[in-house]
Amino acid sequence: MKNEFSSSTVGWLAGALLAATLLGCSKPPPAPPKAPPTPEEKSKNTISKTAFGTLPDGTAVDLFTMVNANGMEVRATNYGGIITALLVPDSTGKTTDVVLGLKSFDDYAKNPPYFGAIIGRYGNRIAKGQFKIDDQTYKLPKNDGPNTLHGGLRGFDKVVWQAEPFEKEDSVGVIFTYTSKDGEEGFPGNLQTRVTYTLTDKNELSFDYHATTDKPTVVNLTQHSYFNLAGDGNGDVLGHEVTIYANEYTPVNKLLIPTGKIVSVTDTPFDFRNKVKLGDRVNADNEQIKFGKGIDHNFVLKKKQPGLTLAARVSEPTTRRVMEVHTTEPGVQFYTGNFLDDTLAAKAGKPYAKHSGFCLETQHYPDSPNQSEFPSTVLRPGEEYNSKTVYTFSVR
Ligand code: GLA
Predict the structure, then answer these.
(1) Of 7, 79, 140, 256, which has the fewest beta carbons less than 10 angstroms from its beta carbon?
(2) What pTM value is reported for the model?
(3) pLDDT on residue 305
(4) Atom of ligand 1 at shortest distance to CA of 366?
(5) Interatomic CA distance for residues 368 and 15, integer angstroms
(6) Is the domain of 241 the same as that of 115?
(7) What residues does ligand 1 touch, defined as CB less than 6 Å away?
(8) pLDDT surpasses 70 at 69
(9) Residue 65 neighbours by CB distance under 10 Å
């Protein structure tokens, strides 16, 4: 039954009050003078810096803690740009760390799985540790059998970056810069590199990559965070549900070098176009899965236009956390933590077993410097390398 009496009574009272106010019978109390907003009120996104460790040569390394207006927190060091923690709120606002990591700075100084790091100058593999530009051959250190992986022996994950923190009204972040010298790890050209980490108050963590060179070179930068959306140390990620917006992938040989073919995912374990439980795929009876000891493959993203494209969506059914990846890159390496083997000093306490985390490394395709059919990774003097990737976190 409708309570007409009370609603019309309220309406009448409100009307009378408005009339009285307009006639000046009752003056509202004057509003207290407003103090100008403090810098903290203007920007609820904050950043702070603490000492993180010292390298054997005495170089001090810092840790930056960024917190956004929702309490989402990113900790990143200027050693390799490594993200050591990423605290994401659930539907009740409670935060949980969703990235894998190590116990101490000394552990990160080695960091064999590349936890959380910037990868460069060339992310992923270059076959036989060599490539040619303009008929000149360049030789690189081999650190993955006969091949070069993730920039060589001392890639961008193992160097100290200059760091410039910033705080804005809707975001907070750090600009990391590094000049990789001509000949460093065998690559030609002085490469001026800038990677900007930004945490927005929309729970986005973005990476803006920029580079220029003074000699023709190859560049393929990415980020190597390992995620467990159920929370770091909470077992494996095989219950995660994954969608990858790719019609094709690049099959590999047994050393994980692409064969050069670009193959449809249809009727293969690499068809993630509709949500798939990871556990249903990582042990599939398939030669490619055997080569990778799980999934460790580059997916060719469906790109309709330049700019950011949705590459992948991962959700975790028990916590209902969702992570989306948008990128300007043509590919993403989906790696299911196949080489994790219980040997590392995990920050969560329990050792990380195989499949404790997954990586979505946005990038150009592996071994592009030797694969003429793949989009080029050559950067020449006067050109700019620009790339952007955004990880967005939400709760379903
Ligand atoms: C990438 C590679 C993997 C492995 C990891 C680091 O994802 O594709 O094969 O090297 O990095 O362990």
Answers:
(1) 7
(2) 0.89
(3) 79
(4) 8
(5) 74
(6) yes
(7) 113-114, 124, 149, 256, 296, 333, 335, 339, 359, 361
(8) yes
(9) 18
- Indicate whether 14 and 149 sit together in one domain: no
pLDDT, position 35: 67
The ligand 1 atom at the shortest distance from the C-alpha of residue 339 is: 12
- C-alpha 335/C-alpha 325 separation (Å) is 14
Report d(CA 101, CA 107) in Å as an integer.
9
Q: Is the dihedral of CA 325, 330, 334, 335 positive or negative?
A: negative
Q: Tens digits of per-residue pLDDT, 142-155?
A: 999 999 999 999 99
Cα of 150 from ligand 1 centre, angstroms: 8
Q: Are 227 and 237 in contact (CB under 8 A)?
A: yes
Which range of residues forms the domain containing residue 247? Answer: 91-156+176-395
Domain containing residue 336: CATH number: 2.70.98.10
Nearest atom (ligand 1) to Cα of 359: 7
Question: What separation in Å is there between the alpha carbon of 359 and the centre of ligand 1?
Answer: 9
> Of 80, 112, 75, 111, which is closest to residue 178 (Cα–Cα)?
80
The yes-or-no verdict on residue 364 having pLDDT over 80 is yes
Q: Is 127 helix (H, G, I), strand (E, B) or coil?
A: helix
Asked whether residue 251 carries a pLDDT value surpassing 50, the answer given is yes
